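Posting this for the archive.
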Amino acid sequence: MLPTLQQIVLASGNAGKIREIQALLPNYPIVAQSAFDITEAEETGLSFVENAIIKARNAALHSGLPAIADDSGLVVNALHGAPGVLSARYAGAGANDRDNLQKVLQALDGVPDEQRTARFVCVMVFMQHAEDPLPVIAQGVWEGRILHQSKGENGFGYDPIFWVPELDCAAAELSAEAKNALSHRGKALKTLVALIKA
């Protein structure tokens, strides 16, 4: 178990992810890898697990701190699992959230509601150091479906088009607290924390 107040480097510069993870790990200062001028690792893996390990190892190596990395994305059944591991760059290099979201909506044009099932997936990895032979790995899945148009102003990424059936709203209509309680990342992080403590 990590000592309280032990800094952990997060292998991301995404402000939304940093806020979400810090809210769930209040006793451990989460420091973005950009604070150490760490160049983002090239995500060459073919799975969420591979990419998360690549990113955690890179952050731990260059910071000298324990590292958390996640690889997450949207998996849409009607698109044969796309955008998948390419979720952040689905519309191409340099694409922003809106570009990616629009590409999904265009790809699903004409697809009826019952065939728009999807899930957010998050694989989260904790490594004590860059050569940790036994990284802690946790997975979270959030089931939903893809809307026909954006709704809501909160969250980031694909949240505006991801319908949450149990609350009858889009993910982007949820407060940060409500999203953390339900989200793929929230589930993965809670599992990861429990595994680290165990």
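Strands lie at 8-10, 30-32, 67-76, 117-127, 136-146, 162-164, 169-170. Residues 76 and 118 are 4 Å apart (CA to CA).
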